[in-house]
């Protein structure tokens, strides 16, 4: 089945602008007159307002499985079970409905506890976990790992389950992926994806005749923009999740991020970073253990970044040198 490339916010704005002044669309795959995305955007004769002005905490993107994923998620890396439960409850209270955990984090139980204590219906939430290559040795062990994740969390299914990294080597990556696809068929996982995958990892899946993931979660922030990977994903209908979107608090003083924040009333660098990620079309996963900070990171819907501000922040990219963590997207 073919899924059209997901148009970036910039492409949507460009299409609307060109429609308004009756210009020929650009050569982007998402902006061709016969593109499904183009037809969707221009199916009405009414002028559409900017997508940016309609971003809210409840905004979603559609995965290639047809399910909706909230545009803003809450990360729980390096948070133990008890703190994870408390942090997730604070996130739910603040309006988040998307939680990102992993077997490697060892806090799926705490996440599941928070879900049960929240009083929210399961279908209102979007819950992710991941399996690390160091924890399995192939197809069968990956199947068992998913079942263990479900037991630990107390859930009947995951909305999204990821291969956490590509460090296992080609054959084991393919076996892990086949196992997740099987669990998807069983209904234990609604959507399957990957994390820390580079372009060559996706090409391995294509050469093996396997379906491409719906989503790739990578380290992504102004200093580490991973443009080659992002380009491939956007061209192949793979959504992008951004971990470490707040640069782990290491934004440099006096760069464009700080200047943009200083130019806006009651906006700090962390809110600028989340907003930048949202306007790029990514799904940021900010994290915190402090309820007030959890709320603060989601308070990004009463301002926008201009084209000039976005370009200034885009220019901060340092390539591979900008990575803060392991970033194993180049693993063989």
What does this structure look like?
It is a single chain. The chain is α/β, with parallel strands linked by helices and 332 residues long. It has helices at residues 9-21, 36-41, 81-94, 108-118, 139-153, 170-185, 199-207, 227-235, 256-262, 269-279, 291-297, 307-314, and strands spanning 60-62, 68-70, 74-75, 98-100, 126-131, 158-163, 189-195, 215-219, 239-243, 283-284. It has an eight-stranded parallel beta sheet. The longest helix is centred in the middle third of the chain and has 16 residues, at 170-185. The protein starts with 8 loop residues before the first helix and ends in an 18-residue tail after the last helix.
